[in-house]
Amino acid sequence: MGNDFAIDFDGSKHGFVSLDCGGKTGDYRDETGIQWISDSGFISSGQVATLPPQTHQVQMQFRSLRYFPLDGKKYCYSIAVRERARYLVRASFFYGSFDSSPVYPKFRVSLGTSPWSTVVIDDPSLVEAEEAIVLTRTPEISVCLSDASMGQPFISTLELRMFSGSMYSTPYKADFFLGLSARINFGAESNESIRYPDAPFDRIWKSDLLGPLEMAGGARRVSSVRQVSVGKQEEPPQRVMRTAVVGQRGFLSYEVIFEQSAGNSWIATYFAEIEDLAPTETRNFTVEVSDWPQYSGLTVDVAAEAGGKYRLYEQRFINVSVDHLLFMKLRKRNDFSKGPIINAMEIYKYLPISADHSNHATGRRRAIIIAACTAAGVVLLIVIAIGCCCYFRRKKNPPDAPEEEFGLIQAATGRYTLSDIQEATNGFEDISDSMNEISLLSRIHHRNLVSFLGYGQQSEKSILVYEFMHNETLKHHLPGKSPVPELITSNFAARKEEVVVYWFANTP
Fold first, then answer.
1. Is the dihedral of CA 475, 476, 477, 481 positive or negative?
2. For labelling alongside 56, which of 64, 358, 391, 436 has CA 20 to 30 A away?
């Protein structure tokens, strides 16, 4: 059973809620003008930790945190919101080695009963952040921490930002919310991210100078001081749209690299013609997305599509399956003189809304309807009951059920019992206790390394649990053991150096 704590807010003109988790001071404004409030008046569980003095060069909201016990419970913030509105929800985690533990934390974050993300701390000096875009179904949003497989669950800040109109609407909004994979500002003038007040909805736009992308095509960075009309669709900020990259050799190709699979994704690319072209200069190009033929050959004439120069044109890709790499290529069309241009891009992963969460919201609405209609008599109640039955039948078998289309699988991680491991492995050899090994493995996360899922500890048994590897281990396929599969030979040579470099860069 979880612990829920209600937090109300006055619905300020920005629709912002900013909680300094563990903060002991009163309300304050940071250097951007955002007002922060301590969560001390809204939660009675968990412990507050103040970070060591050497971390005090960070922003005030990251100088303390709230952490929770390892008791199997979910600890949830319940924040009052406007029903049927769309919100950006951002949870941030700055570890700072507050507990001096040799094991870095790993735990789950959820929105109510819907799994959101697994927070993995690799570097205690960096802020880890998770973002989601949620369409509210009830007058509150719950953000929960639970299921720590290593360390203790903790949180530094919790932020809500309300969007306007139909921003980030998808055909699957009834069954999925969006989890941020990447938000990139192309042509950025520095390494710094752009956020409020330059970004009115306080989305954090990361500089393309920092990755996570690789670009080819002789990219030239361009910028403008002129205003760009951005007041439609997802409304990217002026400052973001005033910079771009242009392909000087007639094309732009770029790879966006993800630490975790981006799964089925919603993608938006943002264009604006911000170069003052001569009357004889023209720009028209095609767009290709990964290996998806339905998105290949799309043509873009930015100025024509946007209705003129210095105006936003947005191109959406509603459902693209992405693993750890998204490849896009923009290519100049024949008979046009200028190479392709791109200003910004966002990538979100579809995350399923759990049945319990949907039923809870639907049940609340049904209870309100029935209570309001009691005085109308038995006949009206029968009509409502028939309507509810039809509604739930449609929910059970929607005409275009995204579960069938997406085939999403939820990963599990956690602390395991001895009997669980014995049953899963058909017995095992005794392994000596090694907290140093657990500490080291908890810090190493890479798509080309087998995932360390957690550990089990019972009596004198200590077991390390890894992701199951199909087709046996690499050792089995080394020369003299068996023929090396084509998949391994085609990828191992290209990836082994990257893995080795990553390993040494992330170990003491």
1. positive
2. 436
Q: Measure the CA–CA gap between 438 and 451, rounded to whole angstroms.
A: 13
Instruction: Give one DSSP letter per residue of 251-302, joined into a string.
Output: EEEEEEE-SS--EEEEEEEEE---S---TT--B-EEEEETT-GGGSSEEE-H
User: In whole angstroms, what is the distance from residue 334 CA to residue 250 CA?
Assistant: 10
Digit-coded pLDDT (tens) for 75-128: 999 999 999 999 999 999 999 999 999 999 999 999 999 999 999 999 999 999
Give residue for tokens 């242009």.
246
Closest CA to 140 of 174, 108, 176, 112: 112
Residue 332, beta-bridge partner list: 285
Q: How many Å apart are CA 500 and CA 324, to the nearest integer?
A: 18
To which residue do tokens 């951005």 refer?
Answer: 230
Q: Tens digits of per-residue pLDDT, 304-334?
A: 999 999 999 999 999 988 888 889 999 999 9
Helix (H/G/I), strand (E/B), else coil: 358: helix
Secondary structure (3-state) at 496:
helix
Place of tokens 């690299």: 257
* Non-local CB neighbours of 481 within 8 Å, separated by 6+ positions: 475
Measured distance CA(133)–CA(129) in Å, rounded: 14
Q: What is the pLDDT at residue 228?
A: 97
- Sheet containing 243-247, strands listed edge to edge, beginning at the edge strand earlier in sequence: 219-223, 243-247, 341-342
pTM: 0.73
Residue partners of 390: CB distance under 8 A and separation at least 6: none
Q: How do strand 285-289 and strand 298-300 relate by DSSP bridges? A: antiparallel
* Nearest of 111, 118, 92 to residue 177 by alpha carbon: 111
Cα(484)–Cα(489) distance, integer angstroms: 7
Distance (Å) of CA 253 to CA 124, 250, 303, 330, 340? 34, 10, 21, 6, 10
> What angle, rounded to 10 degrees, do the helices at 378-396 and 355-373 form?
170
* DSSP sequence for 421-470: HHHHHTS-------HHHHHHHTT---TTS--EEEEEEETTEEEEEE---T
209 strand-pairing partners: none
Strands 86-94 and 47-50: unpaired
CA 13 → CA 16, 17, 57, distances in Å? Answer: 8, 11, 31
Coil, helix or strand for 185? strand
Closest-CA residue to 220 (of 299, 283, 275, 260): 275
